[in-house]
Amino acid sequence: MMNGLNGANMAGMPVGIPTPAGHQAELNYIYSMVEELSRQLAENKRALEDVVSGVGRVRTRARQHALGNEEIIDSAAEEINAQEQNLDHLISLLSEALEKAKYSRDANAALLAQYASVVSTMLKQFHEYKSRHVSDVASWHRSYRSQLAEARAENCRLREQVWDMQAHAGHANEALRKFRSAYDDDAARWEQRVENKALRQEVRFWKRMALPGVAEDDTEVWSDDDDMIDPEEKKRLARIAEEQAAAAREAAAAQAAEREGDGGGQGSSGEEEGGGGREGMPMARLGGGLGGVPMQREESGGYGGPVPPPRPGSASSMGSSGSTGSTGM
User: Fold this and answer.
1) Is 165 among the domain residues?
2) pLDDT tens-digit series, residues 233-243
3) pTM across the whole model
4) Neighbours of 120 (CB within 10 A)
5) What's the CA gap between 291 and 205, in Å, rounded?
6) Vertex 274: Cα angle to 268 and 279 (nearest 5)
7) By residue range, what is the domain housing residue 28?
């Protein structure tokens, strides 16, 4: 019997060559048939050996007991009849095994046919799916490449627009810087701006002095520029208030000392001066409430008019910084 699938033990064949798939399947079937025949031949040989050994035993027994042909046949018939029951049982078992083998063969054949149909259907569906998948992937790649090209073109166009806008913005910014530098370099315009801001601060100062009872957050009275007070103006107002309070305390102390020093002989004159002092105190408080300099008694005993407050310090600082106070032309 040949060994191997490609006949490698055959004489004159140096190396086994590969065979096609159909030829290989046929060779496998032939090899299986040869193996089955070899198995049947081995079983027949074993049965023949059993028959020969049985005949040998019969001849040996006949020779030992000097039996004739009839006696040998009778003794063999007895043994054969004794083995008939075993043969019937063996035949029944073999028949049952044969029926089971036939049923298994038919079931396996049906299962193989069903498996072949299922495999063929799966292969057909797989080939259809593969063709659809290849076509879908190709169309998707084409669409993706077209969309990518459009996106790149749009990106390039937007970048060009951004570069143009940046260039125009740079030119506009440069022109604006030149205009501002030319506008700020004008000395007459700068002086006018400083003077305008100083006048605004002065007007705000006089308006707040004239209207002490109006709240600072009253939007109906103060405009958008008048509702802001410069830090220098606040410091000056606080300093004036402290000076007015100190002057009032000094005047009250002086009047009290004069009343105590005059005594009883000058009671009438002291009362007149005391009355004048009492009349001067509300005026001093009134002046302090208005934000101006408190009125003081002159050496001659008369009352002088209110002295106008000096110009705020923030107005004079506009010539150098120009950043205090409210903005606006």
Assistant:
1) no
2) 677 888 999 99
3) 0.28
4) 10
5) 9
6) 130
7) 22-136
